[in-house]
Amino acid sequence: MAEGNEGHGPGQALASTLGAKPAGGEAMNWEQWLERIPYNILINILVVVVAAAVLNLVARRLFERNLRKAMNSERRTGIAFLRNAVTATIFVLATVAVVYSIPAVRSLAVGFFAGASILAAIIGFASQKAFSNIVSGIFIVLFKPFRVDDIIKIGGEIGTIEDITLRHTVIRALENKRLIYPNSVIDTEAIINWSIRDEKAQKFMFISIDFESDLERAEKIIVEVSRAHKDLLDLRTDEEVAEGVPLVDVQLLDFNGSMVNYRVPLWARDLPTAMRMTWEVQREVKRRFDQEGIHLGRPSQVNYQAGSVGKSRQIVDTEKES
Questions:
Q1: For 120-134, how does the pLDDT look when each residue is reduced to its tens digit (9 = 90+)?
Q2: Which of 186, 194, 202, 217 is in Cβ range 3.0-4.6 Å of 151 for a Cys bridge?
Q3: Three-state SS for 265?
Q4: What is the residue-wise DSSP string for 67-135?
Q5: 146: DSSP letter
């Protein structure tokens, strides 16, 4: 009898429990396979799966409700991160519970992890990055260099923080594309955050006109159009208003490119609003310039061509997008 059981390890026990076909036997269908598994094991697995699914559903609904309550609040970042952590924990615990519900699989797992020290070392080395991402995610939530719904610029891309998981951070960029950064990477990157302290944003509008245009009239049009926009913020203090500090400061920068170049700082409640306001103001300024006969600047390019006698200079005007 002892000889009959000799050589039966966790692998043979697993094959017996799961109904593997005997040597030389025919492959079993799903009905035969299920009949070979004890009903108590199937019930345990079903209970674990259903419990995990229900628990995950309840947890996510609770977190989603709290996220809606925390709209425009710093708590959204912590709630979103905790939601993802709870989901991952439920999945891991459910997997462990399923494994331990099957005696043969449990024996195989215990024997495998107890004896595979080299494999464990390899897995431990490979999981360093995963662990680093988790730690970085926790640091991001604790120290808040950015939060969910913050507008940031990273790697030349501008986007809104959409989610922070245990492994990575999701950024919704322009054109509705998603940028996925591992937490350990984004934690070490230099970023620009337009929302961390104050969401109000200043956007510079650059306008160039030619030398023959009426400067005073052009500046007056820029001021009128900018002041008339509904999203322009007046951040002047009472003292500045009393001193006559203009709401719209039309700054003449230089004459580069044989043009008169202006810079106009405009304030709005947030970056998307400031960008949209700048586009709309520029469009209206161009329309008003056309009505008043004011021409946008065109940079002059000087080309030298060798002629039959000496060299002649030819000035070619090239259009520049404004």
A1: 666 676 677 788 888
A2: 194
A3: strand
A4: HHHTTTSTHHHHHHHHHHHHHHHHHHHHHHHHHHHSHHHHHHHHHHHHH-HHHHHHHHHHTHHHHHHHH
A5: S
Question: Where is 240: in which H helix or E strand?
Answer: helix 238-243
Which two tokens mark 40?
Answer: 């108590």
Longest dimension (CA), the chain: 116
CA distances from 13 to 16, 23, 107, 124, 256 (A): 5, 15, 9, 28, 83
- The H or E element containing residue 281 is helix 271-292
Q: Pull the structure tokens for residue 71.
A: 């709209």
Strands (E), 7-82: none
Query: Other CB atoms closer than 10 Å to residue 271's CB: what's the count?
Result: 20
- pTM of this structure: 0.55
Match 């580069």 to its residue by tokens.
256
Provide φ and ψ at 179, rounded to 5°.
Answer: -105, 125
- The DSSP result for 184-234, as a single string, is HHHTTS--EESSSS---EEEEEEEEE-TTS-HHHHHHHHHHHHHH-TT---
Q: Residue ranges of the chain with pLDDT lower than 50? A: 1-8, 10-11, 14, 19-20, 22-24, 308-322
What does DSSP say about strands 201-209 and 311-317: parallel, antiparallel, or unpaired? unpaired
How does pLDDT run across 289-301, given as a tens digit for each residue?
999 999 998 877 6
Q: Rounded mean pLDDT of the chain?
A: 79
Does the CA dihedral 255-261-262-263 come out positive or negative? negative
Q: What's the CA gap between 24 and 32, in Å, rounded?
A: 17
Sheet holding 260-268, edge to edge: 201-209, 260-268, 251-254
- 300-306 and 260-268 strand pairing: unpaired
Q: Vertex 169, ends 166 and 173: CA angle to 5°?
A: 160
Residue 105 CA to residue 38 CA, distance in Å, equals: 14
